Task: structure prediction
Amino acid sequence: MDWNCILTEERLSDFLEGNLVGNEAAAFTAHKGTCARCATLVAQVGGLLDKMHGLELLEAPDTLQEKILAATVRRHEKKEGWRRWFAWAPLLWQPRFAVGIATVAACGVLVVQAGGLTPAKLRHANLNPADMFRAVNRQAHMTYARGAKFVNDLRVVYEIQSRLQETPSQQPPPRQQHNQKMDPRDPQQKSQTHRGRNASRGGIVYAQDLPAQTLEPPICLVTDGPNWSAP
Amino acid sequence: MEADAQLVQRCLRGDGSAWEQLVRQHTRRVYNLCYRFTGNSTEAEDLSQDVFLRIYRTLASYRPADGAFPTWLTSVTRNLLVDHYRRTRRDRITDSIDDAMPVLEERHSSARSPDRLAQAAELSMQLQHALSRLSPELREAVILRDLQSLEYNEIQAVLQVPEGTVKSRINRGRIELAKVLEQMGVRPQPQSGA
Result:
């Protein structure tokens, strides 16, 4: 029987599984004995089949069966009696719901705080949306003003600190100034004292801190101008 | 076979324990098929779940007269695997087969020596790598025949192709697999010197 390499490849599985009989089997074996390439191929595929048939099935992960059962039959198990009324309760124990409820509660507290509402003194009029809006708006503006003032104060403090650090080696003020007695009646000294105090208030000078003289109109020293007269 | 058909009938009557028994009997086979086809244990696990979910929903469509339950189960699994293959074709180009290699089958062969276990584990990995380089048609034919030990008529029922095509695919798949293994430097020799 005429046998070649193409036939060997085509009938390889039949030969390895014992389905080649008679003349075909003899021709296959004879060709294999003369063709090194086909002999190698038969040996490789035969070895591969031996190895594959020797492999056992992989063990499925331990949790797989439980996952399948949980996704199928156990999901459709119906609760009996009063339990079915509370079948939704386990949902509340999920972290996402707990976090959601906590967030809503925190938002409620913030709104009540911002609206200046006191639960003990709550009246019906306080629940009017317009009043609530006004109260929240007012509270927001006050909070902003407080924040702005705080930031301004901080800025002044840091400015003073930075100036003090910039001039550590400066000469001390003249000794005579230290020895100069403070005269409470001297308005110039008084204004200097106030100026230092005012600096810590962020540059805000209150009228009550100003000396009495500064509120008076200045004396006119120009002779050819309009007639200003000293008080 | 008959036992499976009875279990299916009990399932259809709402018997949860029968379904549980079916799942326990066939999980390993389905998981193996999925793993050998995808080469990834996580994907195989997810696909196995999908297979049983589909089986659970379509259990009423199973006809014992048309074939054994394992054949029907394999057919459903194969269809899902083909869907999965088409869906993830693009992702696979950049994927590596080396990720998430599962615990190999030899862990249950406690009678074998550690040396043999290591060899078998290595062969399993190499085989998995080589299988992933076959075309899907050849791969599924080889897996069903040589790793799942299905008969030709069962494979024909699963793949819905003539028996001649089944035999041809298996033959070509084996030859391709041997060539790929040779390229990888693996030369499995026959134990009996065929």
Notes: Residues 94-110 of chain B have pLDDT under 50 and may be disordered. Chain B touches chain A through 50 residues (CB under 8 Å). DSSP finds nine helices and no strands in chain B.
